[in-house]
Amino acid sequence: MNQDYIKPDNWSIIEEGFDVERVKSSESLFSIGNGAMGQRANFEETYTGPTFQGSYIAGVYYPDKTRVGWWKNGYPEYFAKVLNAPNWIGIDVEINGEKLDLHRCKVVSDFRRELNMKEGWYQRSFKAILRNNTEVSVKSTRFLSLDLDEVGAIKYEVTPLNEEAVISFKPYIDAGITNEDSNWDDKFWDTYEVSHKGNAAFISSKTMKTEFHVCTGMLNQLFLDGELQDVYPVVETNKTLASLGYVVTAKQGKTAVLCKFGGYTVSLNHKKEDIASASGAVLKQASESGFDALLDLQKKAWSRIWEMADIVIDGDVKAQQGIRFNIFQLNQTYLGKDARLNIGPKGFTGEKYGGSTYWDTEAYCIPFYMATKNQQVARSLLKYRYNHLEKAIENAEKLGFTNGAALYPMVTMNGEECHNEWEITFEEIHRNGAMTFAIYNYLRYTGDYSYIPEMGLEVMIGVARFWHQRATFSTDKEKYVILGVTGPNEYENNINNNWYTNYLAKWCIEYCVENIEKVKSDYKTDYDRIIAKTKLDQKEIDQMLEVAEKMYFPYSEKHQVYLQQDGFLDKELITVENLDKSQRPINQKWSWDRILRSPYIKQADTLQGFYMFEDHFTKDELERHFDFYEPFTVHESSLSPCVHSIQAAALDRMDQAYTFYLRTSRLDLDDYNKEVEEGLHITSMAGTWMSIVEGFGGLRVKNDTLSFAPRIPKEWKGYTFNVNFRGSILKVNVSQDGTTFNLEGEKDLLIYVDGKEFTISPNSLMSV
Question: What are the Glycoside hydrolase family 65 central catalytic domain coordinates in residue numbering (predicted)?
């Protein structure tokens, strides 16, 4: 834990007291989004202190030219980056001629932020004494509408406390923005039209190179003492900015309110020539509804989400706050409405990692969306990768692979690889296996086999071909080896025979061939189409199976464990508990050379394989590997604590499981990795959900049936979660006294609890 200022609360994230050192961290923590756009918790009014301005639009990106000192063949030319979009939230405020700026006020008191996760809104309030000695109370409430997902709304209230005040509001939209993270300080946006009409203004821009057309719009309403003011604004514009000025005199204790509706319309959803008129129409619709009515719709929309997605924890407020924060941010980032979109590691909260899609989606996020929404949402995520299959084949061709072998990118926006760290882009190839595992996971959970003949088998064939070609036959070992890789543990680069990578390669080939036979038998038309398209023949299948059958796995007889990679035992095996705390996190304290020579593991590596293929190993094997590798793991990846929590729970080590759960659930709230100001760890938040449902709840799908092994930390009185399984919604309540199940649906559901079979009938409570 590196920070502890967020107040414990079951449903809200709360900060009290103004501290300039916390501003950028809070801008991340209090971010809002609606799946179509997102906004860091920047102040609406001027702030001259350190800040990280960030507004983002789903699917809009820029190909920032790669910048490396030594070019290597195969490097992607561009790093696709989520763009800091034109700023729609800005409101310059002057009070009796003095600009409101918390960094320059004489006194700031009663400062409070709240992110209300239950209802989906963010609010900030404070009192301030300005340099002209005017004292004011300010409250700002904003949200991004789930119903009108091109619209955000702000209610900005100013009350003079010690004297009458002339208040000037200048709401503005600004396309003259830059990214915090850019390689060459390129100009990302080209603004080609600035217009205004009445209380509305619009800026039409397009991204350079990718030519996404975006209209940033605003429409304002001014109120005094609750009465709508019929005023015409003073208009100021330049090439990239439009502001509309309003002046009102408020008596002492009376409140002036500016309601600002703003947001983006995008050529992804409208004809580019229609984006301005579309913006005007949706903003008019929002303003006619009014701020309060739109907020009521927001509360109802979030209520529907929580009805299915909520996890209730009884007796542990910090644990409860943590899981709800994670679930809330996941739903702010992705709602499954658009198969063109995916889940960026930072969501709408920052620019690190380019805002692009990683293997995290397939390995961590799909289970959350399958269980808390419906199979169509997960199917959309799989379809996203199928739509990028041709690009994955092109990516492999650039590296010398042939015959339809597919290498899915480490980082992408449009299917092209756009990551340029050699040891990751070209060596962290295990991500390819996550594509096949996600299909397998989707099938076992939903029972929907139709995806495989329609799309999935082509993906699996491309992936299997890659593993076939990437493996090398070692005459010394008389086995196939995979050389020069980086496993999930990125603190080991360019190593040979990463166990997780080799195991995944073997499994991908075998699972692909298994499904080729099933499609051939049961879906002959699809089979003929796929074979004609891929030109796959039995000779190639036999060659792939030989690679799988003869795959090499490094193993230590002394320790009775699979080795993370060939040279792991050559390291100086000093455990983390013997590492001076002043040296942590090592990725911020040590040279890269020192990290690579150390035994320290960034995240679950071999143990990631044991998590994904749990049924392939005994509990004793899991225990040996957990005891061997966890003491060397520094958990400096956000994806690590959740896997360890699940496995500790499987081993009935509940104290460890609980500790790992708190770390994953409060990773950002408590800033464990000292980097929250850069944005939140969105994809790992799905792992937090898994820590409870798969870890403590013991949820597995075995033989088309839900299986549970419920456990509960001693710190909790109970916990409850919901699972949408093949059209039936099962509510699971675990307490210190036992477990109850309640089923919504139209037919009985067979489940297993601690290995025993039970049948639950709809709308009845079953206790175990």
Answer: 324-690
Residues 631 and 341: their CA atoms lie apart, in Å, by: 38
| pLDDT score for 418 | 83
Task: Provide the edge-to-edge strand list for the sheet that holds 738-744.
Answer: 312-314, 718-725, 728-735, 738-744, 765-767
Strand partners, 115: 13, 122
Q: Based on C-alpha coordinates, what's the Rg of the chain?
A: 27
Region class of 647: left (phi > 0), else alpha (psi between -120 and 50), else beta: alpha
- Going along 40-106, which residue ranges are E strands? 55-57, 61-65, 78-82, 91-95, 98-99
Average of per-residue pLDDT across 366-374? 94
Q: What is the pLDDT of residue 1?
A: 64
**C-alpha 505, offset from chain centre:** 26
The stretch 280-304 carries a mean pLDDT of: 98
Distance between CA 222 and CA 199 in Å, rounded? 10
Question: In 3-state terms, what secondary structure has residue 314?
Answer: strand
Q: At what angle do helices 654-665 and 682-690 cross, to 10 degrees?
A: 150
Q: For residue 184, what pLDDT band results from cuts at 50, 70 and 90?
A: low
The Cα–Cα gap between 85 and 264 comes to 9
Q: What is the mean pLDDT of residues 294-323?
A: 98
Positive or negative torsion for Cα 415, 270, 52, 337: negative
DSSP 453: I
How confident is the model over 621-630, as a mean pLDDT?
98
Cβ neighbours for 578, distance < 8 A, ≥ 6 positions apart: none
| CB contact at 8 A, 593 and 561 | no
Q: What's 8-59 look like in SS3?
A: CCCCEEEEECCCHHHHHHHHHHCCEECCCEEECCCCCCCCCCCCCCCEEECC
Indicate the average pLDDT of the chain.
95
Q: Which tokens in the block code for residue 322? A: 């943590």
Q: Place 420 in a pLDDT band, splitting at 50, 70 and 90.
A: confident
pTM of the entire structure?
0.96
Closest CA to 741 of 766, 715, 718: 766
CB atoms within 10 A of CB 278: 17
| Residue-level pLDDT at 355 | 61
- Whether pLDDT at 592 is above 70: yes
pLDDT of residue 183 exceeding 70: no
Q: Residue 481 and residue 470: Cα distance in Å, rounded? A: 9
What's the pLDDT score for residue 154? Answer: 98
Residue 741's closest CA among 757, 720, 756, 713?
720
Tokens for 18? 């103004």
| β-sheet with 98-99: strand ranges across | 98-99, 91-95, 165-174, 241-250, 234-237
| Residue 199: both structure tokens together | 């209380």
| Residues annotated as catalytic (active site), given as ranges | 490
Packing angle of the helix pair 317-333, 682-690 (nearest 10 deg): 130
State residue 424's pLDDT score.
Answer: 82
Helix segments in 523-563, DSSP class H: 524-534, 538-549
Give the strand pairing for 91-95 and 98-99: antiparallel
Q: Which residues have CB under 8 Å from 486's CB, separation 6+?
A: 423, 424, 427, 428, 492, 493, 494, 495, 498
Placement of tokens 């320290």 in the chain:
600
Instruction: Flag the least confident range among 236-245, 564-573, 674-683.
Output: 674-683
In one-letter notation, the amino acid at residue 163 is E
Query: Ranked by mean pLDDT, which of 178-182, 447-451, 669-673, 680-684 comes out on top?
Result: 447-451
What's the CA gap between 503 and 120, in Å, rounded?
43
In whole angstroms, give the CA distance from residue 84 to residue 174.
11
Q: How far apart are CA 294 and CA 658, in angstroms?
A: 39
- For residue 80, pLDDT over 80 is answered with no
- Note the pLDDT tens digit of each residue in 243-274: 999 999 999 999 999 999 999 999 999 999 99
